[in-house]
User: Fold this.
Amino acid sequence: MKALKSIKPMTKIMIVLCSFGILMGIVFPIYANLFVEWVPGKRVHFVSGCLLAGFIVGIFSFIIVKFILKGINNYYKKTLYNKLNITQFTNGQKNKDLLLDMKEEFEELLNRFDEMNKKEEKRLIELSNTDCLTSLYNQRYFYECTQKKLFKHNQQTSILFCDIDHFKVINDTYGHVVGNCILIEVAKIIKNGVEESDKVFRYGGEEFVVLLENYSVDQVQEIAEKIRLNIYYSNLLHEFDENAKVSISIGVASYPYHAFDMKDLLVKADKAMYFAKQSGRNQCKVYNEEIAS
Assistant:
């Protein structure tokens, strides 16, 4: 069976047709014997003639089949070339060049499709990590970033927990459209107040979280104070609330001074923010023993 599989298709066809012709050459004398009285000494010649005739018929049938198959093959090649706007090829090397070009074009198409697929996948991931209103990172991505985060030795890590003051009053007074505009502008000011490598999240509602790494405590306080002042003195935010300036309260907590894991660090920054609100709002507070008690 393995030897038969290795034989070329056209050779297989020739073997089958010749074998069929010889078989008919064997069968025909057997049936003919029922109707013909053989002349003594001629039976062997007749049988030999039938076998030879069967073999010749098999060869002739093979030539006809090969001619028909070749014609069909040429027809479909011509049809394919016409559809591809390719002239008839008579040189075998040109056919190889064509196949090579088609292979290269197909590979290029696959590479482009793969690149498009990767870009689309990246875009979908970015959308799932982004708050649709402010274009900041969302709370889900904050937990994804911090869930497996391990503090490295001597790497300062700080959180700014920010909350817009009296935001419910703003929404009730001017409506949610104005409230959304204020959220968008505050998000821009916070984002512009830190480096591009620093991460800013809309934690929920009017709350924002800033994740800072490799800053000293003094530097973190300066960043928080700059953000607070930029919001308070924003002319655009003042246009939304004519009776009072929009302000923000910020709580600060840093590793390794206030907490030893990210969850506790967030809790400490949140407590510092609420302490800032209780102390009169529109201010920054760093977590300390007074807040802890």
Remarks:
- The mean pLDDT is 79.
